[in-house]
Design a protein that fits this description.
Layout (H helix, E strand, L loop, with lengths): L1 H4 L4 H6 L3 H56 L3 H12 L4 E8 L4 E6 L6 E11 L2 E11 L1 H49 L1
Antiparallel strand pairs: 1-2, 1-4, 3-4
């Protein structure tokens, strides 16, 4: 018996517990488990949706860039290709763009910097009247995606903490008041 070895008897342990505290802790644990499960489900769903959105935008950007480049590339208009590449490079999601002609010569290349989150790669042929006249590739960063997930996680933690505080305070007070009133009625009934 571990309680006897510590010098505590079973009645001593029971004396330190209260019904309202036990009910409060039980209620808080149950609610937090349910809320945490819901937040986890929502987090996974939102994470998937956001990642699909990044993939969709990457596909959209590479398609638009390849389509827009077809005329300037066909006309060997380097200035216009540089302008188009520079405009696309300003998009927040794009970390790197590489435009090359049909022989593999680089016509435009920009890289914003080293980004460990730049992992979404897209490549597409630039075509003009069914003829491949070059290639364009881009690397899209997941940096904003990760920042958004971090903000979501912080907001969820804040909400969970608030729920915990409100539940502990309100349940503890309400149970103490309710139990005290009932205990007084029981006491009066026993003393009569």
């Amino acid at each position: 018996n571990t309680t006897a070895s510590k010098g505590l008897s079973v009645p001593d342990i029971i004396k330190g517990r209260s019904l309202s505290r036990d009910l409060t802790v039980s209620l808080v644990v149950m609610v937090l488990v349910v809320v945490a499960a819901l937040f986890s489900f929502v987090y996974v769903q939102i994470s998937r949706d956001m990642l699909h959105e990044v993939d969709r935008k990457a596909d959209e950007y590479i398609t638009r860039l390849a389509d827009i480049l077809s005329i300037p590339m066909w006309n060997f208009d380097a200035r216009t290709m540089d302008q188009i590449g520079s405009v696309f490079a300003q998009y927040e999601l794009i970390n790197e763009i590489h435009i090359e002609d049909a022989q593999g010569n680089t016509l435009f290349r920009v890289r914003k910097g080293t980004d460990p989150d730049a992992t979404v790669f897209r490549e597409r042929a630039v075509r003009f009247e069914s003829e491949t006249i070059g290639r364009v590739s881009m690397v899209v960063t997941l940096q904003e995606y990760r920042r958004s997930l971090e903000r979501l996680l912080k907001a969820s933690a804040l909400i969970m903490g608030s729920v915990l505080v409100v539940l502990l305070a309100s349940t503890g007070v309400l149970l103490r008041v309710s139990c005290a009133a009932r205990w007084k009625r029981c006491n009066r009934a026993w003393t009569r």
